[in-house]
Structures are given as C-alpha cells and as structure tokens.
Amino acid sequence: MSLVEVLVGVAIGLIGILIITQAYISSDNFNRSALGAGSGQTNGLIALFTIQRDVQMAGYGISQNNALGCGTLDWYYNGNYSPNLQPGSPLPNIVLAPVFIDSSVTPNALTVMFSTGSTRMVPASITSFNAPSSEVSVDGTAGFTVGDMILLVNQGTPTTCTMAEITQVQGTAAKLQMNPGASGPYNPPAWGLFPASYTTNDLIFDIGNPVVRTYSIATPAAGKYRLQVTDTLLNATGAAGPQDLVDGVVDLRAQYGKDDGAGGGTAGDGIVDEYNNVQPTSSATWQQVLSIRIGVLVRVGNYERPSTPGGACSATTAAPTWAGGSFSVPEGLPSCYRYRVYQTVVPLRNMIWR
User: Fold this and answer.
1) pLDDT score, position 93
2) Tell me, what DSSP letter sits at residue 278?
C-alpha cells in the first residue's frame, strides 16, 4: 500500500466516525428529549391528582352558611394564640374556608380545609356558655367525642369562630368541656383571649380531626423547583414540616369558579359564571364558589443548548399559558428548557351539596 492509499483510507474512516458520532448525538438528544417530556408529563399529572384529591373534599363539615362567614379563625396551641389574637405569634392564621387561594404571592398558594373523623353531621345549638370554666351547654351531645375539635360560631355580625378541643362529654348534663393542659393543648387556660360572647342559639360544629393543607411551590434550592404541601396544624405543633411532593413543578395558579351572575349569567342557578382570584369576604360570596380551576407548570429536565455557541436559547420563547392567563418561567425568556402545562377544574361537591 502506498502512502496515498493509507491517507485516503484514514480520511474515509474519519468521515465514517464523524457521521456515526453525529448520528449518536442526535439520537441521544432525541432520547433525552423524549424521556424528559415523559417525566414532565408524569410529574404534572401526579401534581394535579394530588391537589385535586384534597380539593374534592374541601368544605366537608364546614360548608354550613354560618361557618362560611367566619373569616380568620381564633385558635390556640400550647401557649400561643393565632396572630389575629396575639400579634407576632408563631402560629399561622387560618381562614375558615373550603379553599383559600393566596394570589398575593407568585406562584399562588392553595389552602384546603375539611373535617375528618366526626360522627356528628349537623351543628349543635348552645344553650349556655361558661367561658371561665371552658364549659358549654348544648341541646344534645350525640356524636361529640373526646379528642374531637369543635368550632364555636356566633350568629351575630361580624361572625366570629373559635376552635377548641373536647376533653370531656357530659351526656346527662348535656355539656362539653374544653379543659386546658396535656389532654387539651388547643384549649387556653380559663378561655384566655378567646371571645366569651357566645350565647344561646350560637352553633357548635364537630370537625373531628380537621385537615388544613397548603400546596405551594418550594423556594428553589440550587435551581430545583418542586411542589410541596404543609399540614398547618401538624406543622404548628411540630409534628411535621413541609413535605416535598413532586419535582419539576415551577408554577401553581388557581382561581375560584363563582356562580355570581357575571357575564350575563344568573346568580344562584348552580352554574359557574366566571373564574377569578377575588377573595370572598362573606358567607354570601363564599356560597357562590362552586369550583376551583387549577393550573401547574412543569419544567422538562432536558437542557437544550443554543443552536449556535453564545446564541439565544430557543426551547421556549413565549410564556406558557393556561385558561386563567400566563405562567412565569423562572429563568426568564427565551429559555433553554421546555415546559408543559397541566390544568383541571374541580367541582366543590361539599359546597354544591351543602
């Protein structure tokens, strides 16, 4: 073989290696893109399913018209009152509502509240109330159980609601006791800062072991975004902190579906007339909320380099949208990541059936 033949053979071999390398890189990029899209789809569906499962239960045990007008709940745990009673308290405020959308933050935070474990489905009426003794007389104790949480709801204006824990049920005397101490960490001594104005015909709801869960997007660590949930009562008592649920969820948005007659509709006909983030402030406006519209934005994990070195990214060039508007892309636009939008509408059956 001559030198020329060797050089020609080497050149042909190098061309072949180059072609094979390019084919491998293209195949690998396609594979990464497909796997990333599949992972994003899985994360988005899991995120929506997890939120939807709780939202479907929203309002159970608290969707009575009087309770819906409470607003911020008065509550206590182990030496601390809620901030509306004790400014600077480490306890969080709880809005007594089936679903509370905090649209003042982006991404939004979605808090769901419902009762569990209660065997009493209708409220009792107060016949007399001895606040210093933390003792209330009711028209019947059937269904009330030691360890259950209760809501005291006045029927005046403004409506106030107080949460306490049953430590004793006196069936014959028709009384409920909310004693403080180890058996009643949710009860302040001698009723404390709780309002003592509850009187005849005010209501008591047995809410069993209430669930107050907040879904939000965790503050990114090293650029990693994720959906997380905080159980408010467990977190306040130190039993559990925020729990990470799904990776890759970068934005969460929600809106109330209202039967308020907007847009030419008819208020009170059971049909949602509009979706918005305007917070209901009274029992009447809460009764108009029949559904929740939820959207999540999921980032596909595959980073796509610019087509030219130093050039602009082209994977996502416009803000992703959902039925309620636009999402925010964390790194700005244009982005080297692709995104997937997942959205759903969840009817609030406990509000519809109330």
Assistant:
1) 92
2) P
